Amino acid sequence: MADFSKATALILMAALLANLALMAGADDDKEIRVRKHKGKKECIQGWECSWWSRYCCNQTISDVFAVYQFENLFSKRNSPIAHAVGFWDYRSFILAAAMFEPLGFGTTGGKLLQMKEVAAFLSHVGAKTSCGDGVITGGPLAWGLCFNREMSPMQDYCDDFYKYLYPCAPGASYYGRGALPIYWNYNYGAAGEGIKVDLLHHPEYLEQNATIAFQAAIWRWMTRIKKDQPSAHEIFVGDWKPTKNDTLAKRGPTFGTTMNVLYGEYTCGQGDINPMNTIISHYLYYLDLLGIGREQAGPNEDLTCAEQEAFNPASSPKTATSS
């Protein structure tokens, strides 16, 4: 419980600071501190970008992505037929994002790229937590964040292959939970290490605390799971240079490749299958709702991963945080 108590205390402190900042009113009141470190400019921006970083010299996520925009993207999440009514909210997302903004999440480049990355990340979230397939009201793309957990899991997702590194806790079940649903003990263990919360012994935290659930999802977006592979963030913002083998495998710095590194052959290299097209549709829809416009997404070959070779084929050795 110590890890959870510490994480909860940090979240509550950040929430308090966020509330005070919002109550203060305007962006003009946000303190921006600047220094030169080894000849390079670094900044801090209050609670939201709270350690020295070049990324904190840019606008923060709350500057480019407002409450009403979050509400527009996830307009049906609190409808009576949704399965996580009252769980997900804008504040939880911003508090979670603050852990990663100094690392470049939503703070890389100018406003357009920042907004596009937020849209890209949330399009994965929306597609993976939607209950839109069985409803009509508002259209299927309006139902993101309908779930925060797998309904009626058929197994406990405990894999003894990782019994020494990430041993299953007695009585724990590692079914899908969170904003980018996590499955299996080894994935819970790795994500917990990444956000400094003991998810291996307490996987239920992901369906009890929306900030922790968003933190785990953003950690997955920002983190290289294998040293020789990029993170989804690096792919999307252009910080990754494809190798010759990547180019031959039709993998490039595109939205489509973010699906590849996150889901592999479950989504990519299978032609125009529904799981891939659903994520793409959410991304285009979110770009429109944010006022960016889907034309900013680029050509179809940048959106799709239909013909890409998977980073992690199912036949390859299993690694932590694979699906």
Characterization of the model:
- By secondary structure, the chain is mostly helical.
- Among the domains are: 32-129, Orthogonal Bundle (Lysozyme); 148-211, Endochitinase, domain 2 (2-Layer Sandwich), CATH 3.30.20.10.
- It has twelve helices and three strands.
- It has helices spanning 2-24, 61-64, 67-73, 90-97, 111-128, 185-195, 210-222, 232-237, 244-248, 255-263, 274-289, 300-303; strands at residues 32-37, 40-45, 49-53.
- The chain has a three-stranded antiparallel β-sheet, with no helix packed on it.
- Strand 2 and strand 3 form a beta hairpin.
- Helix 6 crosses helix 7 (210-222).
- The longest helix has 23 residues, at 2-24.
- The protein is globular and about 55 Å long.
- The two termini are 27 Å apart.
Comma- or semicolon-separated keywords:
323 residues, single chain, disordered N terminus, 38% helix, disordered C terminus, Endochitinase, domain 2, mainly alpha
Mean pLDDT: 90
Instruction: Indicate the CATH architecture of the domain at 32-129.
Output: Orthogonal Bundle
- Outline the low-pLDDT stretches: 1-17, 19-28, 316-323
| The CATH top-level class label of the domain at 32-129 | Mainly Alpha
Helix content: 25-40%
